Amino acid sequence: MTPAVAEPGAMAPIALREFHPFEAAGERYVYMVPSAGVFKLDDPSAAVIDALSTGPRMPDDIVGELSGRFPEERLRETLQELAGIKAVGTADAPREEVVNDLPPEGFPLTTMVLNVTNKCNLACTYCYEYGEDKIVDTTFGDQPKFMLDETARDSVEFLLKESGDLPVAHLTFFGGETLLNFPVLQDTVAYARRRGAEVGKRIEFSLTTNATLLRPDIIEWLAENEIGVTVSIDGPKEMQDRMRVFHSGRGSYETVQPKIKELLRKHRTRPIGARVTLTRENLDIRRIYEHLREDMGFWEIGFAPVTTDSARDYALEDEGLDDMLGQFEELAFEWLEAAVENEHHGFSNVKDTLEEIHKGVSKAYPCGAGLGLLGVSTAGEVSLCHRFAGSDDHGFGTVTDGIDREQQREFLEDHHIKNKTDCHTCWARPICSGGCYHESQVRNGSTTGPNLHFCTWVRSWTHTCLEIYGELAERNPEFLARFDA
Amino acid sequence: MKHLKPINQKAGRIEAQIQRELAADELDVVGLESRPPDGPHIPLGCSLVFFPGWEADSQGGTAGLCQPVERDLFDCHLACFWPAHVPDQLNHSVDWTGKCASAQKDWRKLDLVFP
Ligand code: SF4
Ligand code: SF4
């Protein structure tokens, strides 16, 4: 029950509690932390918040201060409502503890990422699998180069079993370059379809490819089997050819360009997205976006900064991140204008964050890795996620033995936001929750710590997305229903 | 709420929860069958609870009780282990109900226990 903070004569001073304020379309909003609720303020509630922002006060004093502008009764009502959503509370109340609410035992697997090969026909400079920052020895380690049919089938059984009662499970192929192991892809999809039908579960497929090996028959197979495709590509020729090169050093743009066009023309059963890796030298986001969306025709384009040790000369450091943020904002507001007109815009980063804001997710973990998402190495070892596939330190059992639930439990205990004390005072934690484990491993040598090198960036980006969310709620609220599911 | 407008889904749920809490503050009688968050759910068989229809039936007599009194005997010591009211069948009086196959028929066979 909300304590009656606003009764006349209440003796305890009140103060603001945890939230992040923002403005959009001329209105004022609060993003509540940690509940992640978004509320629009009216004039009296905004006035109360402003008055309290200079420090704690007695409720009667606040009411007195503002009584020239609003009737007393409305002010008391306002205080009570703000207390209800926990935007204000008694000044000496302790901070709300971050509770260690571990997910239930036997949490079902929703997505399995299968590393069908760890070989690649490209040699991208920044690659986390082969580059300088790899965490698994892909060259001399004991992982087989290609996954066998048998391992892939065992993995399908593993997914069917570990996804429990879920009606749909997702199988994502990853590499290396996935199409180097096309025969196993074909066999696995056929097998998974048959077994899914037998046990009454739908399986959705997707894969990531560098597009160099696309052929008409492969494209046809992708379309026929409704396989979602993400193409890793960095942009127009001079950008793509800077880092995404063959082993000989030759750029890959001329090879992939016609193949991607063919893919986009023929594969119409699932939207096809591009994924761009941003580096210090590859940061003209607007140009990349326009090339991929307009010249190439991708449905969606997602950008991610390269994961690398900060010492590399292509690493994105402060200045680069600021630049990236500015360009993200520009594209995000363009996305907004399209959404107001109910039109599609292909900048997918903004959409993902808006969906989380709309639902009001408040995460104990940054992503599904180790929980609803697991990676599988070419040898059939289960790992935290695809980026850790084959790493001895981040294993969760094998596809034949099932998820090592004890190890999983330990991981979830160690990585809960409760332990990331640096994040406990950060308003962005409901969405960020410390950030990617792999990023943290590469930067800090351990998965447990938060990615503090990204905080400024994360908070600015989340703030921008909140503004866009507020604008959309004001200018085209029906659009938000698309995120309802 | 009049001054704050819930915008996202979570805000809607927070508002609903506040409404429920306000409503719960005003209610003084809550159905036993209703569960949180609408009301308390109190396990059957706890003698702290007043069961309407348990002490007296609708006519004021005991012929039509909605719960046989003997039922309570079992609920108290099975559903909520309560050795103060009934013999402690876990440790000391393991055979207490040995002769009582059907509580409604055989309840007279349940005897006092003398430690
Ligand atoms: S990593 Fe930084 S931005 Fe993310 S929740 Fe922690 S403190 Fe906030
Ligand atoms: S740990 Fe990083 S790479 Fe792995 S699933 Fe999470 S966000 Fe993605």
How would you describe the overall organization of this protein?
The complex is a heterodimer of chains A (485) and B (115). Chain A is an alpha/beta fold and 485 residues long. Chain A has 2 domains: 14-90, Outer Surface Protein A, domain 3; 111-406, TIM Barrel (Alpha-Beta Barrel), CATH 3.20.20. Chain A is built from 16 helices and 15 strands. Chain A has helices at 43-52, 59-66, 72-84, 149-162, 182-199, 216-224, 237-243, 253-266, 285-296, 318-340, 348-359, 405-415, 429-432, 437-444, 455-475, 477-480; strands spanning 14-16, 19-24, 27-32, 38-41, 88-90, 111-115, 168-174, 202-209, 228-232, 272-278, 300-305, 373-376, 381-383, 395-398, 402-403. Chain A has a 10-stranded mixed beta sheet. Chain A is globular, with a radius of gyration of 25 Å. The two termini of chain A are 30 Å apart. The mean pLDDT of chain A is 92. Chain B has 115 residues and is mainly alpha-helical. Chain B has 2 domains: 1-30; 36-109, no CATH class. In chain B, 28% of the residues lie in helices and 3% in strands. Chain B has 3 helices and 1 strand, in the order βααα. Chain B has helices spanning 9-26, 69-78, 103-106; one strand spanning 4-6. The longest helix of chain B has 18 residues, at 9-26. In chain B, 11% of the residues are buried. Chains A and B meet through strand 4, helix 3, helix 11 and helix 15 of A and strand 1 and helix 1 of B. Strand 4 of chain A pairs antiparallel with strand 1 of chain B. Bound molecules: iron/sulfur cluster (2 copies). One iron/sulfur cluster is lined by residues 422-423, 426, 428-429, 432-435, 450-452, 455, 458-459 of chain A.
